[in-house]
Amino acid sequence: MQTQLLKTFMPKGDKEIFAYIGSYNLRISEKIQQLEAIKQKGIVRQLLTNGIVHMILALEIEQHNEDTKNGVTNFGSLSRGEMDTINELSNFIQNYPEIKYTLAYLSKKGGMSPAKLQEGFKLLHNRTVSDFIRNTRVETAENLLKTTDLNISEIVYTVGLTSRSYFSKIFKEKYNCSPKYYQENQYSVAVTA
């Protein structure tokens, strides 16, 4: 791996020093926070550290390639402040999935254009805004199926959806089973435990 990295980032040997300061990337920032939060000792710490450092390296290389491509094609990139806003909006959506979100509402709340908002969600989550909202609702519903006694209709409304059949469809796409089957399976696991 070291040889490949040297070939990629130091193409003329060590005569030129390579320096790269890329765009702010929240995924890299989260990995660095995970690295700083490791509390384990010994080999477990070493393995966790190695895994996270390799992920950071992969994300940095991916960001470098993206920045290089954007520099050539003159695509806009988001500032650190805009990425922080995208992160805040993401957390807001995850905390309040029941709100009826629109792109216009989120753009106004974040103080950025819909195009910047979409770009930020694609960079941070590799999803469009609507895909992120839908995924958040399904994941919240899955957690409610596991941890509450709410029936499926109550869960559908709790996560901000109005159609039980639509919910069943998107749930099955993500978890490969119906919400009813999932819920019944959770109860049987709890009973046998």
What features would you highlight for this structure?
Arc Repressor Mutant, subunit A; 0% strand; 2 domains; single chain; 10 helices; 193 residues
What's the structural blueprint in terms of helices and strands?
Blueprint: H1 2-9, H2 26-36, H3 42-73, H4 80-95, H5 103-110, H6 114-125, H7 129-147, H8 152-158, H9 164-175, H10 179-192
Helix pairs in contact: 2-3, 4-6
Organism: Algibacter lectus
InterPro entries: Homeodomain-like_sf, HTH_AraC, PchR_regulatory_protein
Pfam family, one: HTH_18
List low-pLDDT spans.
Answer: 72-76, 189-193
The helical percent reads over 70%
The total domain count is 2
> Structural class, from secondary structure content?
mainly alpha
CATH fourth-tier homologous superfamily of the largest domain: Homeodomain-like
Mean pLDDT level: 83
Q: How many β-strand runs?
A: 0
Shape: globular
CATH class of the largest domain, named: Mainly Alpha
